[in-house]
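Sanity check

After download, print the first record. It should look like this:
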Amino acid sequence: MADYADVNGVRMWYDERGEGEPLVLLHGGFSDSRDFDGNLGTLAGRFRLLLPDRRGHGHTADVPGPITAEVMARDTVAFLEKVADGPVRLAGYSAGATVALWVAVHRPDLVERLVLISGAFDVEGMIVRPSGEGTLPPPLVEAYAEVSPDGVDHLPVVVAKIVRAVAEQRALEPSALRSVTCPVLVMTADDDIVTLEHTLELYRGLPDAQLAVVPGTSHVLLHEKPELCARLVADFLTGDPAPTWMPVRRAGDGPSGG
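Expected structure tokens:
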């Protein structure tokens, strides 16, 4: 069921599927909530899925002003407060993971569990960054034209805003990661556009994190191995950590080491 929520001067489109505890899915950059079709979207059988299209993406129109991680995090906070009922499970992919992390850092009271897929807390950790040069991939242009209320001619404006935002993006300090108090699943491809070294820094900087490296995948891991990715996320969101037999990093977390 599609609907709109008025948040921070943006008429944000979102889709709602399934029943149960709320799970909010944040799509990647230059994309929309269709990122989750056939992968995390299948979790509607377990959760009440909320899939917003962020400002300037998908069905949500662009508005004057920048499209930065900070701005989109404020939009997301307003969306969670208005549409979701209480703290949520929050999962973000790519740029959506960055937005989700900003939300969890600044409003930990709104996030019960967090999934970060192929995201970075500092653009220096990215091997490939958005660029305004060259021709946009035809599938990206076609997907934007299919649903955008602004029309395909507005896409270069959105691209320019995102390129500028990434170039000027303020990194989250590693110390800020310590304020994320909920359990976190950090997921990445083994051949991602975010370096494995940066992903490890993210994983190690979070107080209560688990790490999943999906083998034989790239930045598009959700579509390359959709069943595996959905199963890993579902297991994390619905279960408790199993005790480990030889804990090292978690050795001080308690007698179970879990």
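If your output differs, re-run the checksum step. Summary of this record's structure: The chain has seven helices and eight strands.
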